[in-house]
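Recall the central idea of this unit: under ordinary conditions, the amino acid sequence of a chain determines the structure it adopts. In this exercise we apply that idea directly, starting from the sequence alone.
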Amino acid sequence: MKIEKPTIPKGTRDFGPDIMLRRQFILNTIRTVFEKFAYQPLETPAIENLSVLTGKYGSEGDQLLYKVLNSGDFLSKTDGSDIEKGYKHLTSKISEKGLRYDLTVPFARYVVMNQHAITFPFKRYQIQPVWRADRPQKGRYREFYQCDADVVGTNSLVCEAEIILMINEVMSHLGLMDFTININNRKILTAITDLIGEHGKEAAFCVAIDKLDKIGRENVIKELSNNGFSQNAISNLNPFFEISGTTEEKITQLETHLKNSEVGKIGLNEVKQTIEYLKDFGLEKDHVEFDLTLARGLSYYTGIILEVKANNSSLKSSITGGGRYDNLTGVFGLEGVSGVGFSFGVDRIYDVLEELNLFPKEFDASTKVLLLNFDAVSFKESLKVLGVLRKSNIKCEVYPESVKIKKQMNYANKKDVPFVLMIGENEIKEGKYQLKNMDTGDQKMLNLKEIIDVLTM
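Accordingly, the structure predicted from this sequence is:
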């Protein structure tokens, strides 16, 4: 019999217990902040109809959708001519569903389907995996978790300000203090596209300019040229590329450039109002930086957009991003429902915290104390002690077999268990047990209450 070497698809990963403890630390931190700001939990299916997903993420996003083949003989409704008509035509014949690309579009679909049961404004958070047929690399995976928070049914910019507050609070709780929240507005980018003489090409402009920090100015210009932007239009971009300074200085410079653009002035005022709300909230250091080149390539954004990057990490990709979308539900038949939301990239945050050694040490241990197993009498007493320790929410276990103590101690060392508890015949008689600190080697005879005090410090 041929033995197959087990593998997993590129861009996916297994998570062992040590990694899961750290991931849960991130997820629980984010979930706690979401609920503190009155967001409600929601889940949607892993698979959606392709009609829901396609056309919402731009041409590049559509290409990264994972399609699910129809059940049974998926070729039964096709013939040779379907292949000749190209992959898009063939896909429509053999696939009706796809894995979700993000959590925002399924959320919009949910809102429309449940509009009569929802109280607006509706604030929800969602923590689930998404899939993208992307090229795997460090910080970029084909399967990864997103933690979304969105509010729909209001145009108020206080929602954008609260998103920035939530980002600051999550980063603080994670111990990640050196980060930047880059902020821009799609209305400003629309205005720039008009002002350089390329009206109607905002989507192509945003896709190209969004890659500036990855491929550089020269390659962005090349991509704009390949997408039909004239040399005169590209030259007209130069004054915008030269804008620099603090957020306030950039806004002042941009006010001059956008003085004849109504949509541009609206976008700039939205940025200024959001920053003003942050001051009203009393946020001393908001980490916000106005970035005119921030575009976020997804086509549904219409207002404020933002991305977060860790400044002292080798990971250059954003760890958080989002923005305002004025009519995403419109494609599903519900017009005029504005929304704004953002997403934490758990996998990228994990990579940053690991690189910078920011995970709390206590999350390395799944077991706080191991009870050694000497014999049947010791084991029986250990079960009673386990019950008491667990009522005090102490993570504990007893070694299940009466084997050599050296083997049990090796087990504790390999699992990085910080304490072992020894319950022998003498200890049972005295009503005190030997508690050993595995880091220092110190041993003390303590009663159960004293042991609980040590383990819960």
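The longest strand covers residues 122-131.
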